[in-house]
Every structure is written in structure tokens, then in C-alpha cells.
Amino acid sequence: MLTVRGLKKRFGNTDALRSVDLHVEEGEIHGLVGLNGSGKTTLLNVLFGSAVISATGGYGGEVLLNERPVYLSSPARAIGCGIGMVHQEFALIPSMTVTENVTIRRERVFAPTAILGRDLALMNAPANRRRASSVLERLGVRLDPSLRVMDLTVNMRQFVEIAREIDRDDLRVLLLDEPTSALNYGEVQALFASLRSLASRGVSLIFVSHRLEEITTLCHAVTVLRDGEVAGCFTGPAYDVDALAECMIGHHVTRAQRQGASRKGSEALRLEGFSVDMPGERINGIDLTVSRGEILGLAGPSGHGRPAFGYGIMGMYPTSGRVFVDRDHIAPLNALAMISRGLFFIPEDRRAAGLLTDHSIMENIVFAAMQCKGAFLNTFPFRPLALEDRRHAHRFAEECVERFGIRCTGVHQKVSELSGGNQQKVCIARALAMNPGILMVSEPTRGVDIAAKETILHIFLDLHRGAGTTLVISSSELDELMRMCDRIAVIHEGRIFDVLDAEATETEFALAFSGERRVHG
Amino acid sequence: MYRANAVPAVFIVLSALALYFSGLSPSFVASEVITRFIRDGVMVLALVIPVTAGMGLNFAVTVGALAAQVGIVLAVDWGLQGAAGLFAITAMGLGLSVVSGFLIGVMLNRVRGKEMITTMIIGFLATGIYQLVFMVGYGTVIRPANQEMMLSRGIGIRNMLDLAPFRNIIDTIWVIQAGPLEIPLFMILMVLGAAGLITYLLHTRLGQQFKAVGEGVEKAEMLGIDTRAVRIKAIVLSTVLACLGHIIFTQNIGMLNVYTAHMNTDIFACAALLAGGASILRAHVGHALLGVLLFHSLFIVSPQAGQNIFSNAALGEYFRTFVAYGTIAFALVMSTRGRGSAG
Ligand SMILES: Nc1ncnc2c1ncn2[C@@H]1O[C@H](COP(=O)(O)OP(=O)(O)O)[C@@H](O)[C@H]1O
Ligand SMILES: [Mg+2]
Q1: Are A342 and A437 in contact (CB under 8 A)?
Q2: For residue A487, what is the enclosing H or E element?
Q3: Around B252, how many Cα atoms within 13 Å sit in the side-chain half-sphere?
Q4: Of A133, A466, B18, B96, whose CA is between 20 and 30 Å from B154?
Q5: Which atom of ligand 1 lies nearest, measured to the CA of A39?
Q6: How many A×B Cβ pairs under 8 Å?
Q7: Is A406 in the pocket of ligand 1 (CB under 6 A)?
Q8: CA distance B308 to B302
């Protein structure tokens, strides 16, 4: 079906792909794994004719579809060849509704107006809506298709992005770039069912994920990329998670694990009757106390309000109820007030809310600290006109790059050129520059490869042990929370359903996730 | 967004105040507003699609107006008359505006992100070419059939052309009398028809492509949309509508000031659109229709109000200019701010 031979791609001086070979049969689900920056997205971008590729000088090597060579010069060309792509950063139009996004370029039209031609016929809104609903239903999500995409959470956007592609009748090859990184376990299973049925219809799939368990359960074959080269290709049942991990990294990584319980101090953060009106993720009247020096986890299915915590406390959505930091009532809630009280938040959507992507790594790391805390400034000539202390900033940024293993050409490289996992590390480095007393993080390891994931978790544990920072970690990776946290609050339907300790069993968590009480006895 | 929608309210308040001080009768003002509505409505509507497609205010509607004027001058030269003449003017104007709209679209694809200033300069350039042709070309390279419209020295066309053969041909259809007001029903329907056409277009696949391109060229490209072609279509449609609008305008006036009639059409049309609550990132048909009414209400009453308050009618004229440019400047500043905080 799809064959790639000797594919090469250069960005300026970096070789993103050096001679990659790949073959995918009709109806095959082909896994693609590799660390952040190993070239997975670049490979898919080449196969989709993306503008980034043509704008940077095109690609070398050969792509064959059904044994016939094609040159994929633009997305329109790729789509014409029956290729579809689920983009890592989503190709959604924020101000359009779910329906409009799912059906874009394939809108149903009223038959009598069809004589005006494809483009000038009147769109049949009810038919489009039904169509969108039915695709979403097939994917197993409940979502009002008249909502605008900009009001959706990341995982719902992910589903819209997927729905748009699987709705195509002419689809022959589907490229999925980390489609599961924003999804929880149940959602992933529903997605897999849809992907399997696509494959059984004869569609070939290339599936990128950092969760190796997903690869081994879903894929018929796997290609491992390392530094832009094929490091290995596994077929049949002869591969397992460990083999893949070793092939990807080339060495062994140690898993991050909390050592014993934290020493708890006084009250650090308290919520009283706290409600957040975040579309699709409401929380209602939550009471919660976090002690100093504690690591608290927030778990729970998506759509039940977990992301609303951080955004609510930073005042990004309308809230009610009261928030106390160190027993002081904070009102009104806004980011500046929280930062000045030593509370810092790393949001899950690092592109939208987190990073200045057009700026350098160094600028991103020191910016917030410089603006809010006056760090990295010379005290000469006098405070308001203080000059940036570039040497100090430079040294700090280089330390972060070194300590966190940020893969880059240097601290002056633009953040937009980094791969997802490395962007996440920059986000964390920036938070650390603030030296926060309380650090709230949302999805710290989303879209991050297995090696970087452990690095990031180690950074948090070191911070907790060294500086005694209070951590509130919201994550859809339960395994990660169980390794890190003292207590884990399970959010269900906008309320705290239960607070479990980290020793609770998987079954207890599964019950809490589905909103069922433990039977005591 | 909220600020942009405060603009219509400001216009309502200003118009009401000016109306009060002018002492003009409401029925006079209403009949003037109706006249301006049918004269300028289509021109303002011509701006909606380029805004939707993310190209901002299309100051090159001037080119559409020039295409209409070329058609008119040729029709006068060839002695065409009546409805058939008007039809010929429309055909020539539209042909010319499709071609020039295409060329403008091609140029704008080379200057993505700087469309507005480019359309403005294209408007000036087109004016220069037009003036050269009719001031110097006519009577030298081009041999006119109608000597009456030429300047006495035989080169160049007179400043004013009397359009008696075409005057008020279409705006006398279906005129109904409502008390002191004359309502040209057909013309109002024509403007609303143009509004309906745009609304229709925005509910087609093409309209969906305009919106997608307007939100971000990169994303639209990822969706396989030929963004260049879509942007060219937006400008062609805009130029064609501008041409139609200017034909309606001139036949209503009944005279053509050959060298200056098209000037400021772009500024006044843009200001009217913004007065209706549009921004340079978002505009729909409702903004255009409301904007024409509000903007021209203020235009009609402000000179008299200036006369009554400051005993100086010229002040009203200055005030108009101030309002037109002020509205545009305000919209530009506000929309840049909106973009900054959203991005
Ligand atoms: N637009 C770009 N400009 C410059 N370098 C890039 C660009 N996109 C990707 N790269 C580089 O190419 C390499 C591969 O990146 P990518 O394909 O995004 O990795 P992955 O998806 O496997 O994490 C990285 O070293 C990255 O820095
Ligand atoms: Mg990637």
C-alpha cells in the first residue's frame, strides 16, 4: 500500500530524517515510536505534504502508493491520494463549531442547489450535524456538536480532530500523530475500536504514541526511529514493551519513585465551596486542603472537571467559593496574585497558555521570573530601570538545559522548533526559575517520551525533596500519580468523589473513576 | 470584541444629538438616509467577504468603482442609451472587475499579512492609470466617437459627464409613497438581494473555506484548502460587488465626475462597515446594513448641526472626515489589541 524508500529531510543544519525506509500493507496498523525529536512528526509531515516540509526545501527519497511513485507536494495533493492526518497540534478552526470542523470540505448540501456546483451549493446544516454526531458516537464520545472548538478541552479537541479524518469515505492511509496523548484509558479503548474497524475496511494506519503498551496492543508492526534513522522494525507477536524501549533509547532508564511519605506541615492551600465555570469541565462546590510539603494527585476521567482546578485558581474562568493560600483569603483570583503568593501553575496546553513559542529557550525560562520576581536583573542603576542580567540568565538557562536534558542547538533556539517533550521541559524549567512554594502542574508528561517522562518525574521529586515544594499534580496517567503522590483526589462529575492514598489498589481507583462507592465491610 | 460592538451605540448617540441640534425634520432625514442606503449599500456589502477571508478591509474596492466608471465612459462615448446601455455598462464593468480582481488577488497572495496597506496602494495606482488613460490617452491613442464629451483641446475627457440617458433608470421602479416618504422598493430589494447573496455564499462550502482561511492560512492549508485560490475568489467577488455598487451610485446621482467620483468610496464604505459594529477580523452582512444607516444618518445631520451650533457649516464637513477616519483608526487599534491578547 504505502512504501517509503530512503526518505531524507533536513531543516537547515539538522538532519531530521536520514534515509528512512518503511512499508505498510493494506489494512495494517503500523506503529511508529521514538524519543522526542527522533523524527516521527517530520516523517508524517512528509507523507502529508505539509507546508513545513515544502517551505524548508522539500524532501529527498521516494514515496510509493500502491507501487506507484508520488511526490507529496501539498496537503491537497496528499488528500487527493487518500491520505489523512491527525495532527499533533490539531488542524482545527477554533471559532467554528464541532460540526463545521468535522465536516469541513465534505459538507453535505441541499440537493436542489447542487446544480450550482460543489462549492456554491447551500450547506445542509442539519445533515452535517447528524453526520458529525454519528461519527463522534462511533468514537464513543458524548459531545454537543454545536459547541465551538475553542470552548473544548484538549481531549475533546483531539476527538474532533480524529472524527474529521475517519469521516472520510476516500481514506486509504491515515497518519495519527500522538492521538492518545490527551486521552484517558477508556477513551483510548474506544478510539482503538474505531481504528481497528477502519483497518478492517482496508485503510492503512500509521500510529505514533509514547505509550508502548498501546503500541503492542494495537499495532501489527512497529518501526522504531532513533535520531532520524530506523533503529529497528518489529513484526508479529515477537515484540514487547521492553524490547521497544531498549531499541528506542539504547540504554536503560530508572523509574521515578517516591521514597516514603512526605513530612506534612501547616496548611498551604485550602478551597471552600470552590466552583469553576469552565465549559465542558465544570466543578461544583469543592472543599479541599493541601498541606505544606505534600504531593497531592488529582485523578479522574476527562470531562469531569479535573482541568478546571488549575485554571480556576489562576482566575482564567469565572469562579465562586473561596481560596486560601497560607490561610489568607485570596480575592480576586488572578495569576499575578497567585504568583506573588508563591503559587505557580503549569497548564496542560503549553502552546496556548504556557509558552512564548517565537522566543528562545532562555527567554522563556527567565521571562516570568524576571517580570514577577525581579530575578535576573542587575540592581544598577536603580530598580525600575534595572537591566537584564544576561550572564546570570544565560548560566541558569544552560544549567536547566543540562539538568533536564533539553535537546536543542543551544539556549537561543526558538521554542517552536523543539519537539513536544522538550517544550514541556522548558515549561517546567520556567516554573522552577520562579522558585515556587506551591507548584500546580497539569498533565506534566503528556506527549513526552518514556525517557523524558522519567526525567520530568525525577525533577519533581528532587524539587520536593530539596526545596520542600508542595506539589499538586493533575494527570490522566494513574500509574504516574501512584508513584509520586501522598494522596490522590478522584474528581467525578465536578466533585471530589474520594481521596485515596497512594497504596490503594487499581480496583479501588477504577471504582472511584466510574463514580461507584467502595463497599465497606 | 465588546469594544467593537460599542461603536454602533456611539454612532446612535452622536446622530441623535446632531439631529436634535440640526433642527432637521425626521422625515427629511429618513428620506435622505434611504437614498444613501440604496446608493452605498452594495459598496459596503462588498467589504464583508474579504474580512471573512482574513484579508482585512479591502480598500481596493476603488478598483471596482473605476471599472464601473470605465464602462460608463465607454457607453457615453458609443452613444448607448437606456436600459440596454445600462446593461452594457454592467457587462463591461463586471468583465473588467473580474480581471482586475484576479490581478489584485494574485498580488495580495504575495503580501500575506499586509493586505490592507497593499489594497490601499493598489487603489491609488489604479486611479493613476485611469486618469492617465482618460486625460491623455483619449484623443491621442484612443479615438473617441463622441466629440462632445472631449475637452475643447481634443485631448482628454471633460470633468463632468451628464448621464441623462441613464439617470434613475432603475431607481424609479416600484417607488411607493408612504406619507411624506418616497420608498424605492426595487432598489431596497436590490441592496437586500446583494446582502442575501453574500449570506448565501457564506453558507456554502466556499463560504466555509473563506472562514477557514480567515482563521489561519496554515491550518486551512493542512485541511487541503487551496488558500491562494480562495483568497483570489474573495477579492474577485468583492471587486465585482463594488463595481455593481458604483453603477447604482452613479446612475442615482445622474452625473459622473470622471476623475474624482470614485475617490473616498473606499474610506466611506470601510467606515460605514465599522460603524455597524464590524472589526477588521470579523464582519457580517448585518454590520454592513446597520453601518450604512448609522454612518449616513450622522453624515446627513452633522453639517446642519455644525451650522446651528457654531454658525459654520464647513465644520460639519470636517466633522465627517474626522468621523470616517476616526472610525477606521479606532477599529484598527482595537483589532490589533484583540489579536495580541488572544494569541
Ligand atoms: N520546523 C522546524 N525547523 C527546524 N527544525 C525542526 C523543525 N521541525 C522539527 N525540527 C527538528 O527535527 C527533529 C525531529 O523533530 P520531530 O519530527 O518533531 O520529532 P518527534 O515528532 O519524533 O518528537 C528535531 O530535532 C527537531 O528539532
Ligand atoms: Mg512529534
Answers
A1: yes
A2: strand A487-492
A3: 21
A4: B96
A5: 17
A6: 69
A7: no
A8: 10
Which portions of chain A are predicted below pLDDT 70?
Answer: 237-238, 252-253, 350-353, 372-388, 517-521
Q: For residue B213, give the chain A residue with the closest CA.
A: A93
Residue spans per domain, chain B: 2-162+185-328
- Determine whether the interchain pair A93/B219 forms a contact, defined as Cβ–Cβ distance below 8 Å: yes
User: In terms of pLDDT, which residue wins out, B121 or B148?
Assistant: B121
**Residue found under cell 492518545:** A180
DSSP A151-205: GS-HHHHHHHHHHHHHT-TT--EEEEESTTTT--HHHHHHHHHHHHHHHHTT-EE
Any ligand 1 atom below 6 A from CB of A416: no
Dump strand ranges (E) for A282-437.
283-291, 295-299, 319-325, 328-329, 343-346
CA–CA distance, B332 with B328 (Å, rounded to integer): 6
At A209, list the grid cell: 504514541
CA distance A76 to A49: 8
The 10 Å CB-count burial string (b at 16+, else e) for B136-165 is ebbbeeeebeeeebbeeeeebbeeebebee
Residue A89 burial (10 A CB sphere; 0-12, 13-18, 19+): middle
Grid-cell match 458529525, residue found = A132
Looking at domain A265-342+437-447+464-521, its CATH architecture is 3-Layer(aba) Sandwich (3.40)
Amino acid letter for position B73: V
A92 touches chain B (CB under 8 A): yes
CB contact under 8 A, B209 and A91: no
Angle between helices A154-166 and A125-138 (to 10 degrees): 110
In this prediction, residue B267 carries a pLDDT of: 93
The C-alpha torsion from A381 through A395 and A425 to A352, rounded to 10°, is: 30
Peptide bond into B144 cis (omega under 30): no
Q: Check pocket membership of A447 for ligand 1, CB cut-off 6 A.
A: no
Between CA A495 and CA A492 the distance in angstroms is 5
- Partners of A93 in beta bridges: none
**Residue A16 alpha carbon to ligand 2 centre in Å:** 11
For A44-62, write each residue's pLDDT tens digit.
999 999 999 999 999 999 9
Q: What is the DSSP string of B141-199?
A: TB--S-GGGB-TTSSSB-SEEE-TTTTTTTTTTTEEEETTEEEEHHHHHHHHHHHHHHH
A419 CB near ligand 1 (under 6 Å):
yes
Beta-strand relationship, A2-11 and A14-24: antiparallel
Q: How far apart are CA A400 and CA A410, in angstroms?
A: 11
Q: Report d(CA B300, CA A298) in Å as an integer.
A: 63
- Cβ of A76 and B225 within 8 Å? yes
Q: What is the pLDDT of residues A105-141, one digit of tens each?
A: 899 999 888 888 888 999 999 999 999 999 999 888 8
The strand pair at A204-208 and A173-177 is best described as parallel
Protein residue with least CA distance to atom 10, ligand 1? A417
Nearest to A456 by CA among A486, A482, A423: A423
Sort out which chain A residues have CB atoms less than 8 A from B207's CB and list them: 123
- B2-162+185-328: CATH topology: ABC transporter involved in vitamin B12 uptake, BtuC (1.10.3470)
Is CATH 3.40.30.10 correct for A2-249? no
Averaged pLDDT score across all residues of chain A: 87
Distance of CA B53 to the CA centre of its chain: 18
- Can you give the length of chain A in residues? 521
The CATH topology of domain A351-435 is Rossmann fold (3.40.50)
With beta carbons less than 8 A apart as the criterion, state whether A226 and A38 touch.
Answer: yes
User: Quick one: DSSP state of residue A305?
Assistant: S
Residues 180 through 209 of chain B touching chain A, CB cutoff 8 Å: 200-201, 203-209
Contact (CB, 8 A) for A472 and A343: no
